[in-house]
Amino acid sequence: MRTPLLNRLLPFAALLALAAFSFSGSDYYTGLVVKIMIYAIFALSLQLLVGGAGLVSLGHAAFFGIGAYVAALLSPESEAAGLWWLLPAALLAAAAYALVTGALALRTRGVYFIMVTLAFSQMAYYVFHDTKIGGGSDGIYLYFRPELSLGGWMPFDLSNGTTFYFFVLACLALAWGFLALLRRSPFGAALAGIRINEQRMRAAGYSTYPYKLAAYVIGATLAGLAGFLFALKDGFVTPELLAWEQSGLVLLMVILGGMGSLGGAVLGTVTMVLLQELFQSQELFGDYARHWHLPLGLAIIALVALLPNGLAGLPAQWRERRHARTADASRKAARDVITPARAQGTAPASRLPIQGERHV
Amino acid sequence: MDISILLIQSLNAFQYGLLLFLVASGLTLIFGIMGIINLAHGSFYMIGAYMAFALGPVVDRWLGGGFLATLAVCVLAAGVLGYVLEAAFFSYLYKRNHLQQVLMTYGLILVFEELRSILVGNDVHGVPLPSWLQGSIALGDVMTYPVYRLFISAVGIAVALLLYWIISRTRLGMMLRAGASNREMISSLGIDINKLYRVVFAAGVALAALAGSIAAPVSSVYPGMGNGVLIICFVVVVIGGIGSIRGAFLAAMLVGFAETFGQVLFPSAAGVLVYLLMAFILLCKPEGLFKQG
After folding, report:
1. Contact between chains at A119 and B235 (C-beta distance less than 8 A)
2. HSE (side-chain half, CA atoms, 13 Å) at A175
3. What is the distance between the terminal CA atoms of chain A, rounded to a whole angstrom?
4. Nearest by CB to A301, which of B32, B102, B104?
5. Cα–Cα distance between A291 and A288 in angstroms, integer?
6. Largest CB tally within 10 Å, which of A265, B16, B211, B262?
């Protein structure tokens, strides 16, 4: 029942469509797409943890914010910084914070892990919010986008909008490709094993802790990349980028899209950002657009009610329903034949460790 | 530090801790027994506070007034709201993934906040103190302490004792304790788990709304007031151990003292202190202070 060829071609089709979209000429829409792409990288990085290793983190925004703050803090005020050192610095800072906090947080599991990651991200939030390092709660400006120059030759200029668009697109494609390869690697298989049954993995001789820590650091590094791009996009960084609402938002994107698949993370991001934009639109809703949270909340509730496996699980859900219906029909046609109503092609809903685990 | 300042700050910390306990006790029961990560719990605190603001004049007019009558109306209304919400939304989600429930409760937060903005607006409103609780008592020579804050502490202590009695002495409490330690088992022992869930949820909402409505005269009511409370209460629940009322009480006190004295002693690091405390406790005891309910 699967259509692997179509599934494999979809990302490439999306890539081409996104590349073509840069020529649409509308600043508003290209800006929106850049925002979606950056958040898609952010959501993909969390998907590695949630869908890959079953580590539900509510502190992922810390790494996003650290990437953004490093970009803004290390950029000189009067000239452009070098991309070749600014980007690695941002990624390293995010990875370093993840290594330290992850080493501690991974001692806990389930709901407690959610809360410890939240605690560490809140600490980072208050460091930027309450001290003068990054301008306190007012935030900090980034005046010039960094540039890449190799001995005087500049292959591309990020201050140009279209170039920046393609730079973000390339980052998204690379992040996707990297994560897709990672999933297929023995490392990805080990993570999946940990997600499904950590005890059994340990019994099989895997030391699970280093795997989880590695996944945590890799996810954080990618989140740092997303934050770095976000700082470049707006040229403005505030502590709100590290706030728990941001961590919650990206987690919602992953849940909404469907846990486990890379496409789900991107789909969830697109849906979330577009729903926000849609309900905020003055042309469609006029004065009611002020209350855009209300339809957004209702839409989220409706999506949860209708989509038990997220947006990415929708085709499987339809298939299951169709199978149930055809099974029903065939049962009516031939009453003596008992057909199992369950479809074979449907994947079981991805289970997270906190699901089977008792809370107390 | 002066001894009277120490006393006043301790009273403040105690009162703040009790307020946190009121919200967190409901949260920990819902979390521990129903297994729902209820992000909308902060909204119930907010709803309680706004009800105290909006229903105060109405109660004055129809029931002859009185602050206690307003509180009673708020708590009752919140309990009914909780009962209806559980039946309308949450009862469909028990078989779903936990994170789906998180997503839905997030949707509920948005809806509640926006309804609040439509119905009451986005201004900050004060809620008048009842006349019999105005004034303050003298502590030492120059310091005074407002009577109303003592009233909040008294309500907090009363609720804590009531909860202790219900949980350790009554049949309902027995079911709650059993439910917190093994959900499947008590339903197989013939206890109507759906009804228990509904009661727990309604009680949790009522407790959060009670906290909101008695805090309203001190904190005034303002947009987004639920979100700050929500996160700090999750911290309390997790430090205490999920599902444990005793743990929630102890953790609420710890957090109350850490935050109050943090603001006095290290104003620039006050925000970090609570999370530092939580990280430290969870790293020593990965399942909270009291593992079992």
Report:
1. yes
2. 32
3. 41
4. B104
5. 6
6. A265
pLDDT one digit per residue (tens) for chain A, 360 residues: 445 666 778 888 888 888 888 777 778 888 899 999 999 999 999 999 998 899 999 899 999 999 999 999 998 888 888 888 999 999 999 999 999 999 989 988 887 888 889 888 988 998 888 888 877 888 888 888 888 877 777 777 888 888 899 999 999 999 999 999 999 999 999 999 999 999 999 999 989 999 999 999 999 999 999 999 999 998 899 999 998 889 988 998 998 888 888 888 999 999 999 998 888 887 777 777 788 888 888 988 888 888 878 888 888 888 888 888 888 777 777 665 444 444 444 444 444 544 444 443
**Residue B244 touches chain A, beta carbons under 8 Å:** yes
Are residues A119 and B115, on separate chains, in Cβ contact within 8 Å? no
Give the type of residue at A95: A
Question: Does A289 contact B at CB distance below 8 Å?
Answer: no
**Which of B103, B242, B276 comes nearest A111 by C-beta?**
B242
Query: Which of A158, A142, A31, A143 shows the shortest CA–CA distance to A83?
Result: A158
B216-220, Cβ contacts within 8 angstroms, sequence gap of 24 or more: B216/B48, B216/B49, B216/B50, B216/B52, B216/B53, B216/B127, B217/B52, B217/B126, B217/B127, B217/B128, B217/B129, B217/B130, B217/B148, B218/B148, B218/B149, B218/B152, B219/B49, B220/B124, B220/B125, B220/B126, B220/B127
Decide if B49 contacts B196 (C-beta within 8 A): no
Pairing of strands B143-146, B136-139: antiparallel
Check the CA dihedral A212-A218-A220-A222 and report its sign: negative
Q: For residue B273, give the chain A residue with the closest CA.
A: A123
Name chain B contacts of A308, Cβ cutoff 8 Å: 96-97, 100
Task: Give all domains of chain A, ordered by start, each with its CATH number.
Answer: 23-293 (1.10.3470)
Interface test with A, best of B39, B118, B272 (most A CBs within 10 A): B272
ipTM over 0.85: no
In terms of Cα–Cα distance, which of A226, A249, A286, A295 is closest to A64?
A: A226
Q: How far B267 CA lies from chain A's nearest CA (Å)?
A: 9
**Amino acid residing at A285:** F
Across the interface, whether the CB atoms of A360 and B106 are under 8 A apart is answered no
Q: In chain A, which residues have their Cβ closer than 8 Å to the Cβ of B32?
A: 359-360
| Chain A residues touching residue B293 (CB < 8 angstroms) | 360
Closest chain B residue to the Cα of A357, Cα to Cα: B35
User: A45 CA to chain B: closest CA distance, Å?
Assistant: 17
CA B259 to chain A, closest CA, distance in angstroms equals 14
What are the boundaries of each domain within chain B? 25-223
H/E segment holding residue B111:
helix B98-119
Residues constituting chain B: 293
The reply to whether residue B275 touches residue A119, judged by beta carbons under 8 angstroms, is yes
Hey, is A251 helix, strand or coil? helix
Show Cβ contacts of residue A328 under 8 Å, excluding neighbours closer than 6 positions: A341
Kindly report the pTM of this predicted structure: 0.83
Contact B114 A109 (CB under 8 A): no
